[in-house]
Amino acid sequence: MKKSIMILSTALMLGGVADAQNINFEEYDLNNGMHVILHHDPSAPVVVTSVMYHVGSKDEEPTKTGFAHFFEHLLFEGTANIKRGEWFKIVASNGGKNNANTSDDRTYYYEIFPSNNLELALWMESERLLHPVINQIGVDTQRGVIKEEKASRYDNRAYGKIINEVKKNLFIKHPYQWSTIGSTEQLETATLEDFRAFNKKFYIPNNAVLVVAGDFEKENAKKWIEKYFGEIQKGEKVEKQIFIETPITETIRATYQDPNIQIPMVIASYRTPSMKTRDARVLNLISAYLSDGKSSKLYKKIVDDKKIALQIGAVGFSQEDYGMYIVYGLPMGTHTSEDLLAEIDEEIVKIQTDLISERDFEKLQNQFENQYIDINSSVEGIAENLAKYYLLYGDINLINTEIATYQSISREEIRAVAKKYLNPNQRLILDYIPAKDNTKK
After folding, report:
1. Predicted confidence (pLDDT) per residue in 87-141, tens digit
2. Which residues of 102-140 are buried (b: 16+ CB within 10 A; e: fewer)?
3. What is the CA radius of gyration of the chain?
4. CA 386, CA 39: separation in Å to the nearest integer?
5. Inter-residue contact 90 to 82 (CB < 8 Å)
6. How far apart are CA 139 and CA 413, in angstroms?
7. Which of helix, strand or coil describes residue 402?
8. What is the tens place of the pLDDT at every residue in 163-193?
9. Given 117, 277, 280, 288, which is the most exposed site by the fewest CB atoms within 10 A?
10. How far, CA to CA in Å, does 96 sit from each of 90, 91, 93, 151, 154?
11. Domains in the chain, please, with CATH?
12. Beta bridge mates, 79
């Protein structure tokens, strides 16, 4: 009886929090196909204006990689009405801040301004879309920026190419196989017309969603949105290619030599389904259970108790078409990579065989409930989630309902999904080791 009361109490608490966190929004389309989402929140005198384009590294050609990330930088160079080098000065002088980021699936730009500068933000984002200046000086400048970024984040950084090497080996047909930053060599040989063609194809209103979130007057926002974005012509519809990977049925073995490291790392990676699937949500729970933080099963067992690893961890990549679950470890002392894999596999087999404890299950549910609250606790987080759920998931209201999916997952389902995806013959084993001569290539 006590257990039943506890479970009921937890369910009521989670449901109550979810209701309290309900995100209201209004959505509509402009005549040119741009989708608009408005979320009014007067709790703080700020407003977020963001545009997410449905273009990422997966939309590039194999011989012209890195274009989406390149445009993340290039479209700050200036427009017909914003001189080169003035973008960030305008934002800062008006009390704002801005940024952008790129993934395999999308590119996201945003500004955060005091509420009285919404019109300015909308004009600037419309300028980026309507009047970008793509010239040789801008391209040459950003080539240098990208080259420096690649060197510092990947080439000269210890363990900097883990994700790139995993992707290269885990995906054979899908463009997820190349890195988001792409090839600097291909960027160097690309012509100005190549960049202009990429812009014309993907940076169009009908391939984007505009979000305004925060403290603003809706009627003014709608008037300014129509004024600045309504005149932009609709582009040719972007046809997305579909790439189907052959299921992995035998363990993939690969080795990479990193001249920046002294200690080897072993990596086990599994190809997982689209983030839009229920199974992907279950795998997120499994990932948290196994390897999220120092209280996780793998860390406590392998690092704290048995002391056979200096570090153990995992990262999950939830993406539009496929995902990746990557477990990594640094062997300690005389222990080997095979020792670590044996310990990891032992914990996975336990999940596949037995139900996780009710206490661990409740902990997971609370953890994901807290994450839901945290990510929607700021207007910036809400703006990005509204854009993401529309553009990548096709359901904006997931911002309110996705937590219910996590709450509906059972311990039995966790066991079944672990059996389905996390088997030795369905993964990549990557030995990430020091370069033999320990010199940079």
Report:
1. 999 999 999 999 999 999 999 999 999 999 999 999 999 999 999 999 999 999 9
2. bbbbbbbbbbbbbeebbbbbbbbbbbbbbebbbeeebbe
3. 24
4. 9
5. yes
6. 50
7. helix
8. 999 999 999 999 999 999 999 999 999 999 9
9. 277
10. 9, 5, 7, 30, 31
11. 22-229 (3.30.830.10), 252-434 (3.30.830.10)
12. 132
Measured distance CA(153)–CA(188) in Å, rounded: 19
**Could you give the CA distance from residue 170 to residue 427 in angstroms, rounded to a whole number?**
8
CA–CA distance, 379 with 377 (Å, rounded to integer): 7
- Would you state the structure tokens that stand for residue 122, as one six-digit string? 């909308």
CB atoms within 10 A of CB 268: 24
Encoding tokens for residue 420? 């389905």
Task: Tell me the per-residue pLDDT of 16-44, one tens digit each, with 9 for 90 and over.
Answer: 444 446 999 999 999 999 999 999 999 99
Q: How far is CA 276 from the centre of its chain?
A: 13
Q: What is the largest CA-CA distance in the chain?
A: 73
Joined together, the tokens standing for residue 107 give: 């590119």
Task: Indicate the pLDDT class of residue 292, thresholds 50, 70 and 90.
Answer: confident
Question: How many other CB atoms are there within 10 angstroms of residue 359's CB atom?
Answer: 8
The amino acid occupying position 388 is K
Cα separation, 134 vs 84, in Å, equals: 11
Q: Which residue has the tokens 């196994």?
A: 290
pTM over 0.85: yes
Strand spans (E) along 193-331? 208-214, 252-258, 265-273, 309-317, 322-331
Query: Helix 192-202 to helix 67-74 angle, to the nearest 10 degrees?
Result: 90
* Among 311, 273, 308, 313, CA closest to 293: 313
The 10s digit of each residue's pLDDT in 3-12 is 443 344 344 4
